[in-house]
């Protein structure tokens, strides 16, 4: 697979299949990003919509990296930074990208393709070795992103993903192969190289990694799995809820209610977020007035860790893979475990027991 | 993988990974089922809710099988029959199961677990060599089905599937591993053998088959892919729409509207169906009165093949893998192509280009 070779060239410290830490806003900070990269993955800082802490986050990461022995090759910083572009401030971000030269930037949910193009051009001017990753959730978005930005990487997000993504969509099972078929340069159209596809959405263990490889991605993004690591910047209540929830397709749902209750405005109508079903969601589905629901939410916030749970109201963003998350592990151990495990899964299958004839 | 060995023992004519033809109601009849089995797969007749044609369908299949050379082993009929149990008539079905001894029965959406148990017991009494397959869409359903029926096979259906299934759910990416972990007999609980898991929902080509294997299923179900075969009992308009639709997560949606317009009652509130988005769906989402929508639908029916399409109103049930279906092929060729292709995908991955270290 050509993509794997390219990944190892672009990020010399990684092992393949590449395990990426999702840029979870407020949750994936310097500590998590660096631990993931130290284990041969690629960690992202979740900048999200607010670039005001980006400088201190990058400074913190730089210190942690100085103390480690990551082979960075082209002198880039061996982590990435992830933006939610509709809210992020370009003029704050670009000088910091120029100064710290992260290995990658991850763009998601820009207001327009011309905005995506602008972020991309300015990033490449500011730090030519920084790779541009663009997250998409449909074939249409993939083709548009290729035309606007020619990203190095398309992060293909299936609908099992936790947190924000397209409200309407397919899982990786169909989305990844269909995107792959539609972004391959066709004969006579070789104007841009094939982007590397990285799979996101529902991957929480070695089996999911192996499946993503089979579907055509030489690397994967894990988000929900890293919530159960000491490096995740979340409350105990949030983490306990991640460990509790099972039957992920039933215990989570996509909705706009959690953003609405928390007063987070700005997401387009096309996007919502997957979280663990709780009282806020059940009440909203039953028709409760949003103002009343919000009042109850605000009271719940005061309870601290007790505010999370199926009978409580604090938001637990998580993907449908939440049922596969059963223990807390250091982020680096998660990286190694799912990567090595995926090799074992594939070696077991190619041994012939399954794929052999009679 | 233990399941693959068991499959080859239970269905001696098959090759693994097993490719199964979904029991699509009114669409997958004797011709398709037999062609799939002749190619080393396992074809199902889609009996659905109406058992009145089961006798003639089985008779037709028996004639087709007589003319072929399928190795049946234990003298079962080398195809399966699929029921939608809430509507199917047990007293019609059982004598025909006894007479024709299909290799498998596929149960889906029973009114209760005691009903599922009754269907299972009577089937096993009527034809001990007939294997019992039960379709589930959540971990909860899987565990309940195991307790009620101890099926030989659990068909694990992810939310990408076309036609009917759970309205709320996860894709195979998370559902299959989580079901697998929850139906494995635990230490001291070895009362029943581990069921074989067969993956359904969004699998339309070799990459999907390989992914399902990686996720833990030694076999897969294809439905939407077989709609583009000459053996599918559908109109040209329906088939053309399958070939046209792409970006499957965007061009299809889960809804109850299609059943409602066609006057199909009986499905539980928990279930709906995925179909290609058309005018009926768009109008329903925009708030059109259902009676008005139904009237427009009934006018559309008169148009024949022209009644299908994104600007038309005839129902095109299809999974989100519809964008991967680009040509019409004989059902047997599809079976061979995806099976052999999945081996090539896995062999390519285990070659080391992707999973090798630096």
Concise overview:
The first copy, chain A, is of the alpha/beta class and 358 residues long.
Task: Give the largest chain-chain interface (CB within 8 Å).
Answer: A-B, 70 and 69 residues
Helical proportion of chain A?
40-55%
Query: According to CATH, what is the class of the largest domain in chain A?
Result: Alpha Beta
What is the general shape of chain A? Answer: globular
Number of domains of chain A: 2
What distance separates the N and C termini of chain A?
A: 29 Å
CATH homologous superfamily grouping of the largest domain in chain A: Aldolase class I
Using the CA coordinates, give the radius of gyration of chain A: 20 Å
Looking across the biggest beta sheet of chain A, what order are the strands in? 1-2-3-4-5-6-8-9
Q: In terms of per-residue confidence, which ranges of chain A show pLDDT below 50 for 5 or more consecutive residues? A: none
Descriptive report:
Two copies of one chain form a homodimer. Chain A has 358 residues and is α/β, with parallel strands linked by helices. Chain A is globular and about 55 Å long. The first copy, chain A, has helices at 2-10, 30-38, 54-66, 90-100, 113-126, 139-149, 172-183, 206-215, 224-227, 236-244, 248-251, 257-261, 279-285, 290-301, 331-350, and strands at 18-21, 42-48, 77-84, 102-108, 131-136, 153-157, 163-166, 196-200, 219-222, 252-255, 271-276. In chain A, strand 8 (196-200), helix 8 (206-215) and strand 9 form a beta-alpha-beta unit. The two termini of chain A are 29 Å apart. The model of chain A has no long low-confidence stretch (mean pLDDT 94). In chain A, the strands form two sheets. An eight-stranded parallel barrel of chain A has the order 1-2-3-4-5-6-8-9, surrounded by eight helices. In chain A, strands 7-11-10 form a three-stranded antiparallel sheet. The first copy, chain A, is built from 15 helices and eleven strands. The longest helix of chain A is centred in the last third of the chain and has 20 residues, at 331-350. Chain A has two domains: 2-222 and 328-350, TIM Barrel (Alpha-Beta Barrel); 237-322, no CATH class. The interface between A and B is large, with 70 and 69 residues. Chains A, B: It holds the Pfam family NMO. Chains A, B: GO terms for molecular function: nitronate monooxygenase activity. Chains A, B: Keywords: Flavoprotein, FMN, Oxidoreductase.
């Amino acid at each position: 697979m050509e993509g794997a070779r390219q990944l190892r060239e672009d990020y010399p410290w990684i092992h393949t299949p590449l395990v990426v830490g999702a840029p979870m806003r407020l949750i994936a900070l310097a500590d998590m990003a660096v631990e993931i990269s130290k284990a041969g993955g690629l960690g992202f800082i979740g900048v999200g919509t607010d670039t005001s802490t980006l400088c201190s986050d990058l400074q913190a990461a730089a210190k942690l990296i100085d103390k480690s022995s990551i082979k960075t090759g082209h002198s880039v910083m061996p982590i990435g930074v992830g933006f939610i572009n509709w809210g992020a401030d370009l003029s704050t971000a670009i000088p910091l990208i120029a100064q710290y030269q992260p290995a990658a930037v991850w763009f998601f949910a820009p207001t327009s393709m011309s905005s995506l193009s602008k972020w991309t051009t300015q990033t490449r001017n500011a730090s030519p070795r920084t790779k541009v990753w663009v997250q998409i959730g449909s074939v249409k978005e993939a083709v548009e992103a290729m035309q606007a930005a020619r990203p190095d990487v398309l992060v293909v997000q299936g609908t099992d993903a936790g947190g924000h993504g397209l409200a309407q969509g397919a899982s990786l099972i169909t989305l990844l192969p269909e995107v792959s078929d539609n972004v391959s340069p066709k004969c006579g159209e070789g104007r841009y190289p094939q982007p590397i596809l990285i799979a996101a959405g529902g991957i929480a263990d070695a089996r999911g990694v192996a499946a993503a490889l089979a579907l055509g991605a030489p690397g994967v993004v894990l988000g929900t799995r890293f919530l159960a690591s000491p490096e995740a910047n979340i409350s105990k209540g949030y983490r306990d809820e991640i460990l509790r929830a099972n039957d992920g397709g039933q215990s989570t749902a996509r909705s706009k209610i959690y953003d609405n209750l928390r007063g987070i405005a700005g997401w387009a109508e096309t996007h919502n977020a997957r979280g663990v079903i709780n009282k806020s969601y059940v009440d909203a589905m039953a028709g409760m007035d949003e103002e009343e629901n919000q009042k109850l939410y605000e009271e719940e916030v005061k309870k601290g860790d007790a505010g999370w749970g199926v009978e409580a109201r604090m938001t637990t963003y998580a993907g449908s893979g939440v049922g596969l998350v059963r223990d807390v592990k250091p982020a680096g151990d998660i990286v190694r475990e799912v990567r090595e495990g995926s090799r074992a899964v594939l070696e077991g299958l190619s041994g012939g027991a399954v794929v052999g004839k009679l």
